[in-house]
Design brief:
The structure is a homodimer of 211-residue chains. The first copy, chain A, has 211 residues and is an alpha/beta fold. Chain A is built from 10 helices and 6 strands, in the order E-H-E-H-E-H-E-H-E-H-E-H-H-H-H-H. Chain A has 2 domains: 140 residues, 3-Layer(aba) Sandwich (Rossmann fold); 64 residues, Arc Repressor Mutant, subunit A. The model of chain A has no long low-confidence stretch (mean pLDDT 87). The structure holds a DNA duplex (30 and 30 nucleotides).
Chain lengths: 211, 211
DNA sequence: CACAAAATCCCCAATATTGGTGAGTCATGG
DNA sequence: CCATGACTCACCAATATTGGGGATTTTGTG
């Protein structure tokens, strides 16, 4: 049995979801509350496997409650639920360690599936939320347009060493080439990157994900 | 009807999944292929709504095929499937614009659900993949624990300049302090960060989000 | 007020880096 | 077979950085 704690300020929604979860097989609803202020205390008391937390809550926001719960008991799975697909909220929730994020859904079986997913160590994201996350992800990590900067394998290797903070001498050693050759490579790298110092090169390398 | 194209090198799996998808309501399986080399050509020909692409493929890898497809027809939804939960692969696939990522699953209805999800503009991630993505996400964006390194405002300012690739002289100018003072601040920064060169300091600054 | 922390400035010497020039090998493709 | 690009190595001179001293002023706090 998966023990679940529900936080949801909307009375109607809370009661109908409670009803559904209480009768769902494999799930034990330990409690349902309209306020997250006492969330940490309640988590300590009931030791739920999964917490279902609404983002919009009076007094203490769902995100803050999430942070508090994770700080107090980081193994407790917390799944966020919301009606709004707000980029900032999604971002904040994930950074705070949410184990799932679902849009309020008329189909209650979605909740059950999600609870099972997170209980089993996975994460559950509603499709539209998943899209948001993937987009943010790509936006951050996808190679920038500046991929036309072509570094040779050796140059990339040297640049990688520079990113690690190694000096010419150390790089020479690590790559098993002479100090002078390192010098040559670095000169070429600076030329290609249009920089003229190691720090600048490192910054561009990281920014452009050249290494 | 959602038009689907399947790429999967395992004959058995391809055929059984084909069979299932062909009979699934709302889905029209346009074709199933064992090799992704011709993927772009096939996509152009069949104009599928959703492509199901195995990561492990002979000749052209699923990731490369994904890139090719997205380059040729960026609105075609591509869902990756794999048996391995390889961080690098997940990362690469998402950066290349995958619309979903599912682990090969004995339950074929998972595929149908996932196809519907991505067709409707959402994304579908298997729970364990979702966990990976969220973890990578947090790792990148969540403030690092190493915030206990206390830099004074001036030191942060100087470090920021260093990240911008400025030399001592330029920093002195920018902060309107003398070259010697910049030197002093940087000595202090190196001490606090346990480094002894500008590139190292820059890397740590970026890693730890100190600036 | 006295104290500590932050910020400012200066000098010197040892290293490290940068920029310029030149040149040899090796593999690849036209 | 020649051209080209990648990789290798060397030398020199000019700058820049680093690490070690020491010192003063400002600011906020007990």
């Amino acid at each position: 049995m998966i023990s679940v704690l529900l936080f949801e300020d909307n009375k109607n929604f809370r009661e109908s979801l409670s009803l559904y979860l209480a009768s769902a097989e494999g799930i034990w609803l330990s409690g349902a509350f309209a306020d997250a202020t006492e969330a940490v205390k309640l988590v300590r008391k009931y030791k739920p496997d999964v917490v279902l937390m609404d983002i919009q809550m009076p007094h203490l926001s769902g995100i803050d409650a999430l942070r508090a719960i994770k700080a107090a008991s980081k193994d407790t799975k917390v799944m966020m639920q919301t009606v709004f697909e707000d980029d900032d909220k999604v971002f904040a929730a994930i950074c705070a360690g949410a184990n799932g994020y679902i849009l309020k859904n008329p189909r209650p079986d979605t909740y059950v599936q999600a609870i099972f997913d997170v209980y089993n160590g996975g994460s559950h994201l509603s499709p539209s939320i998943a899209t948001k996350v993937l987009t943010m992800f790509q936006h951050q990590f996808a190679k920038s347009e500046q991929t036309y900067i072509q570094l040779t394998p050796r140059e990339k290797e040297v640049l990688q060493c520079m990113v690690k903070g190694m000096s010419y001498k150390m790089i020479a050693d690590a790559c098993d080439i002479s100090f002078n050759t390192v010098h040559t490579h670095i000169k070429k790298i600076y030329e290609k990157l249009h920089v003229n110092s190691a720090p600048e090169a490192v910054v561009k390398a990281l920014e452009w994900k050249l290494v």
